[in-house]
Amino acid sequence: MPDTFLERTHGNSSPSGRKGTLSVWVKRTELGSNQYILGNYNNASNYGYLKFDQNDNIAHYSNWDTDLQLVTNMKFRDLSGWYHIVLSVDTTQSTASDRLKLYVNGVEPSYSTTNYGNQNTTNYLFQASASGGHRIGSQQTTQHHFGGLMSHFHFIDGTAYPASTFGSTDSTTGEWKINTNPTVTYGSQGYFMFKNDNSLSDDSGNGNNFIVGNGTLTKSEDNPSNVFSTMNFLNRTTSAISYTNGNTTVSYPGTWVFSLGNMGVSSGKWYWEAKVNSGNNANSYYGICAEMVPAGNGFYNNSQNGAIMYAAGDSGDTYIDGSYTSGAQTPQNKNTDILGLALDLDSGTKTLKIYKNGTQLTSGGTVNLSSYYNDTVVFPCFSGNSSSASCSFNVNFGNGYFGTTAVSSAGTNASGNGIFEFDVPAGYTAISTKGLNL
To answer: 0.85 exceeded by the pTM?
Structure first.
């Protein structure tokens, strides 16, 4: 949930706050607002934080702007991948620029603002007191929550480590990759959160556990080693369309608009699930869309080559490459039914297969793809209109959730990639970076 944060009150056994390291992997789902990764509040004059600011820069402040600060020139607006952020602090250094280091995916960015402070300045993000505490995902009020996912959150008390402690460059791809078991000394107030799950327990061995301060902490299969598709927050024809729950829930305005997954595929066999929420499901459509369909038009279900759209509701209507058929699908899909889509772009005859609650439709269950889907990129596609009642979808690309509700009993999955409610057809896998590289 976008208003979720964790908190703990730390003891006063920490050193002076002159040395420390914060390392975390994050995947953003929202842009254009202040979003705190970590905040530490001692009192109204002494506090520190690391955040994305309203301009999508990364910013670190200690004691607001009077002691220590870094603000990047670069804007971080990628909603499809993970960023690795390391803040390394050692204010005992005699060289000013060595007192404060920020790394993103192993590289120190350029800054629009710097203030390295005086030697031995206290950095209040790392200084503890009995009255203070850390909040992960929020500042020290109920404002500016982080929108997105976090993984492998290391807080180091008393030692400044470089980014290379927590990651390295892949020799084949050149990409920055995670070190899942770094060798570090955490210090008395250090902790390691989100190692493999959404546990509130500290994996550093210190027992510096957190509690949920607000919201619901939801586990995700999406991680720095395997990035799953979501709905594309940036692909919208109107700002009234809403993406929530890590961009896996899409809600539509009172006009017809469509939205795509943020990973397209041109080959392979792919499976995903969706659930139409309560509301006007007669105004809800789902299917696939080829790259040729322009994103800026008023497309929903009308004549459109390169789009296959199925109605979610009593009509059972289909629109296939501009050809409308009334009642083509049996049985019809209802609210709360789980829709399964299996896209085969590898076989001699490319197909899209439609499932309802794990069983393929008896009529309209298989569509043979036309030449519009050859040698192009194909996206999961959803469309809606909330003019008479709310219209929204929860999409499970393999994270194992519909919105914030976990699948009730995971089906079999031969590829082992993703968690789905129903059995994944043989040979199919989740749309994810691991799936793309199988």
So the answer is: yes
